[in-house]
Fold this protein.
Amino acid sequence: MAEGRTKLIWRDGELVKWEDATVHVMSHAIHYGAGIFEGIRCYETPSGPAVFRLPEHIRRLVDSCKIYRIPLDYTAEQLVQATVETVAANELRHCYLRPLVIRTGEQMGINPIGVKVETFVIAWNWGAYLGKDALEQGVDVAVSSWRRAAPDTVPMMAKASGNYQQSQLAKLEAKMNKYGEGIMLDVHGYVAEGSGENLFLVRDGVVYTSPVASAILGGITRHSVMTIAREMGLTVREEVIPREMLYMADEVFFTGTAVEVTPIRSIDQIQVGAGRPGPITRQIQQTYLDIAHGRQPDRHGWLTMVPEAATLSR
């Protein structure tokens, strides 16, 4: 039985049993990586379950489908509703969500024209991506030998299944070398991001992050953290980051739906700052989690509340 599995998955307009949400081994997505997905978290709040920045995630899903020219049969509004329904139908208080658009069918060959497209929304129980200890104490990482794709090769602004082959190589390399995660550089040797996370560093009170031109995914959590940091009165700079700046940083941290805000305590066995989560990282992390869990006012409208299943059926 899959770890964290739930009861129901939304599949093209209807809720089906987890075990029935299958595709054929001949599916285009399996052979050629033809899929678009999102990663979203639903948090338990005092007012009930709330999905963090759901419309923004769905908008990126739609954008990714446009980039890969995958026809989508649903509007953004319909997919927002489908996601909320999936949480409610599974009676979840908190969960990880995976909207997924894939080319299925049984058509062999790279040509995707006319291949069937199916849309799913999956919910399951998933804890801290790099482990609870990583959130509290930080994680040890290394710069990967694998680089992000060059411009005009693979569109890195799309969150596409096939794009993550290079991420798997970076992740495998990091784990084989006893690191928690890898940091990838772009084709020019500048800092890009983690295998599945955006990256920030702090130097002399200024917060730095790589621009989208450094072959990164435009992260929703990344945008949230930039907003929080600016509200704290910090200067946030999006600019190309030389590798050596990682070793000079006072603080470094990952951001993403899965990792949330995870501190980095060493890079290539060089201690970051004092070797523990720094004060700016801690404050950003706390503010982010407080907003997501409803412990702070949702002043930006980032939370989509999930009504009870009975309410949705009316």
